[in-house]
Specification:
By secondary structure, the chain is an alpha/beta fold. The protein folds into 2 domains: 4-311, Purple Acid Phosphatase, chain A, domain 2, CATH 3.60.21; 317-381. Helices cover 40% and strands 22% of the residues. The chain has helices spanning 16-25, 27-37, 74-80, 96-109, 121-124, 162-172, 195-206, 253-256, 292-311, 314-341, 345-352, 356-381; strands spanning 4-12, 43-48, 84-86, 113-115, 117-118, 128-132, 135-143, 156-157, 178-184, 211-215, 223-226, 229-232, 237-239, 258-266, 273-281, 287-289. The strands form 3 sheets. Strands 1, 2, 3, 4, 13, 14, 15 and 16 form an 8-stranded mixed beta sheet that branches. A 6-stranded mixed beta sheet has the order 6-7-9-10-12-11. A two-stranded antiparallel ribbon has the order 5-8. Helix 1 (16-25) packs across helix 2 and helix 10 packs antiparallel against helix 11. The longest helix is centred in the last third of the chain and has 28 residues, at 314-341.
Length: 384
């Protein structure tokens, strides 16, 4: 079998101040330096964080006017040479169903294949199949469940549910040479995946998936070779306005401004292999290929994150560091919204409280208790 090269990038936000820079300075200013160093490739995959929309107002509670991406910015994806764009994100329905349908139509008309979202669940779960050099590649996309999730009679993102993903993989795996999954998942600002994510990823690889391209945490996470598959738990922010939205969280700004371009080699014989191209964006939102010390630091960081997964201590790091970021960010969000909403805050808080975090925070407290118990027990044994 002939070989293919797939490029994959993470969270790509074309709204906020990135939108203004593209309007005023052009897509070449933002992406030109990185485009110059891209290796020859057959497929370019990108996670499109927000939908294209014009003349629409925010619909979902977390949406913000600055998230809107004008139709003209389709030129950015054309400039980069994107073939497949994941649209299945927690922002897909920010501006309502019309924006969803407009995004699908706009991408399709430009020869860019949307995956992970649709006018109902059945459409959202449909695969994108490309045949290049006689090789068939199948893409499927899914997003963590929320108010933006597609249903039988409602548009949105394909639900990230193990049973439905397994069903879709089973349908397609014998029709293609490679199955690529796009997963919008995980905990924002956590550099470590959760135990549930790792278990799910392993099950999906065992079911016939070849490569998982993860995004949504907005920071880099580790990479794992598992059996015959390859798992990128989070590719980080390709380009993103970290200050856009209703509340700005100051933490981990450097980590949120750097990512990697995954260069995945699919040769049909051995398991998928990869290289990484570290990149970062400046305050001006110009994307820069990392060189010298910055490049070494990013690659070393990914290596350390990957080692945590390989050696199994990632789960402790997830509860100690990832959940700690959740708590800090959520406290900040609620304080700021209380100032903004005043009496309406109670209604907003009830509607938008992330109940799923309660279970995670309980596990976090348990892990902290266990860590303290182990530490104190060691001190007692050492006579300190």
């Amino acid at each position: 079998m002939k070989s293919l090269i797939l490029l994959g990038v993470g969270d790509t936000m074309l709204g906020g101040r990135v939108n203004e820079v593209i309007i005023n300075k052009g897509e070449e200013f933002v992406f030109g330096k990185v485009k110059e160093i891209l290796p020859e490739h057959d497929i370019f995959f990108l996670n499109l964080e927000m939908p294209f929309s014009e003349g629409s107002s925010p619909v979902l509670s977390h949406a913000h006017e600055s998230f809107i991406v004008p139709f003209s910015h389709i030129k950015v994806l054309k400039y980069l040479g994107v073939h497949v764009a994941n649209i299945g994100t927690n922002h897909l329905m920010d501006f309502g169903e019309k924006a969803l349908l407009d995004t699908i139509e706009l991408l399709s008309n430009e020869g860019i294949h949307p995956v992970g979202g649709g006018k109902n669940e059945s459409e959202a779960r449909k695969p994108v199949v490309l045949e290049i050099k006689g090789i068939r590649i199948g893409f499927l996309g899914y997003c963590k469940i929320g108010e933006y999730t597609a249903k039988d009679d409602k548009g949105g993102s394909a639900p990230l549910q193990k049973e439905s993903i397994m069903e879709d993989v089973e349908k397609i795996k014998n029709e293609v040479d490679y199955v690529i999954l796009s997963l919008h998942w995980g905990t924002e600002l956590s550099e470590y995946p959760s135990p549930e994510q790792v278990a799910l990823a392993h099950s999906l690889i065992d079911a016939g998936v070849d490569v998982i391209l993860g995004h949504h945490p907005h920071v880099l996470q580790g990479i794992e070779r598992y059996n015959s598959g390859l798992i990128f738990y989070s590719l980080g922010n390709f380009i993103f306005d970290n200050k856009a939205g209703k509340v700005f969280y100051e933490g981990m700004l450097q980590e949120r401004s750097q990512s990697v371009i995954a260069v995945v080699y699919l040769n049909g014989v051995a398991p998928p292999n990869y290289d990484l191209i570290p990149v970062y964006f400046e305050d001006s939102f110009r994307l820069i290929p990392a060189e010298g010390k910055r490049k070494e630091e990013i690659l070393k960081h990914v290596e350390e994150l990957s080692m945590a997964i390989e050696e199994g201590y990632y789960h402790q790091r997830f509860f100690e560091k990832g959940v700690e970021s959740i708590i800090k960010r959520e406290i900040k969000t609620y304080i700021e919204r209380m100032k903004q909403e005043k009496i309406r805050f109670l209604i907003w808080a009830f509607k938008n409280f992330k109940w799923r975090y309660i279970k995670t925070i309980i596990k976090y407290m348990k892990s902290r208790f266990i860590s303290m118990w182990i530490r104190d027990n060691r001190r007692f044994k050492n006579g300190k």
